[in-house]
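Module 6 notes. Inverse folding takes a fixed backbone as the condition and produces residue identities as the prediction. Think of it as a translation problem where the source language is geometry and the target language is the twenty amino acids. Below is one complete input and output pair. Work through it position by position during the lab.
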């Protein structure tokens, strides 16, 4: 505490800090002790000369010191009473917020700590709860696994006052997404997004400049080509899952690329039976598949024939809805939309 000696020091505590009026010839000094950092700092110099027999006490969050008699004047009672308010001189409050709490995305930690006096925060110590630390005021940190982590921030001001705060930060997994697609007509494709049930937002890029924000869009391309189609879905926490695929968009029902020439599918819509007619192209057989709107195969058969043919497929056992009929052989693949009533 500097020069001494001191006698009859006054002491009191407020919150988690202790205060000592040094007594004796230096009783005009007031020092604070911070147990968290095991450090002392001087907070005040009371006016006048040193005093003895000082008395200290606290009421709530305020401290009071009766400074005692002036040195050399005898013990004549408490002349001065000084009030000390920690929140007006040395209070420091640690606080922070965190955003973008998604796996494998940088989490931004924003320091919101404050002081109530002229003291300034000069040190920040972060513990992200996963073995990583930082001394940056507003750090970014990327977690490598989902879960709930206890993040701690300790701040120190230029008077060596310290405070700390802890918050739980939950890191959410990225949603796993995928999509299927089926031809409806020439250059027209039905896209079906596969995303978590709690997905609340969707976004499609079709690779030709067009986009969509619905889960199952139908898109018509201007010309045959390879397109990179991407599908994004966001879960309720705002975390994005994304899937991209290269799609070869071709013109349907062109004989040199189709397994069947002069294809006819009837009746469509249908209820009990479906008929497929046409002429085999090159190969003498085709793989026939019927897929539901989720892309699941509900019927499959290899059908062998030469030249012109008519094939009957029973469909009464299937639930009403939209389906896709797929036919494939060495000549190519065709997909057509089918409605079962």
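Target side of the pair, the amino acids:
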């Amino acid at each position: 505490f500097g020069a001494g000696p001191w006698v009859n020091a006054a002491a009191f505590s407020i919150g988690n800090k202790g205060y000592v009026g040094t007594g004796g010839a230096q009783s005009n000094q007031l020092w604070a002790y911070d147990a968290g950092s095991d450090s002392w700092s001087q907070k005040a110099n009371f006016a006048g000369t040193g005093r003895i027999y000082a008395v200290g006490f606290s009421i709530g969050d305020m401290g009071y010191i009766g400074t005692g008699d002036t040195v050399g004047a005898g013990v004549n009672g408490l002349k001065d009473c000084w009030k000390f308010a920690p929140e007006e001189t040395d209070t420091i409050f640690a606080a922070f917020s965190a955003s973008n709490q998604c796996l494998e995305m940088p989490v931004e930690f924003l320091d919101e700590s404050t002081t109530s006096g002229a003291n300034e925060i000069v040190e920040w110590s972060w513990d992200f709860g996963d073995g990583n630390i930082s001394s940056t005021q507003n750090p970014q940190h990327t977690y490598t696994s989902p879960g709930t982590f206890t993040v701690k921030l300790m701040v120190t001001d230029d008077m060596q006052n310290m405070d700390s705060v802890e918050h739980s930060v939950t890191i959410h997994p990225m949603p796993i997404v995928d999509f299927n697609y089926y031809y409806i007509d020439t250059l027209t494709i039905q896209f079906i997004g596969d995303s978590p049930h709690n997905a609340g937002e969707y976004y499609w890029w079709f690779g030709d400049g067009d986009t969509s924000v619905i889960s199952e869009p139908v898109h018509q391309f201007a010309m045959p080509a390879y397109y990179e189609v991407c599908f994004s879905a966001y879960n309720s926490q705002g975390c994005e899952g994304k899937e991209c695929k290269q799609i070869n968009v071709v013109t349907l029902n062109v004989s040199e690329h189709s397994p069947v020439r002069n294809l006819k599918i009837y009746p469509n819509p249908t209820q009990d039976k479906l008929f497929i007619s046409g002429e085999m192209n090159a190969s003498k057989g085709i793989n026939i598949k019927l897929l539901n709107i989720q892309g699941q195969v509900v019927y499959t058969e290899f059908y062998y024939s030469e030249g012109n043919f008519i094939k009957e497929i029973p469909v009464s056992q299937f639930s009403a809805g939209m389906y896709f009929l797929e036919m494939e052989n060495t000549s190519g693949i065709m997909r057509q939309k089918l409605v079962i009533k």
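Reference fact for the lab report: Residues 92-171 form a domain with the Immunoglobulin-like fold (CATH 2.60.40.10).
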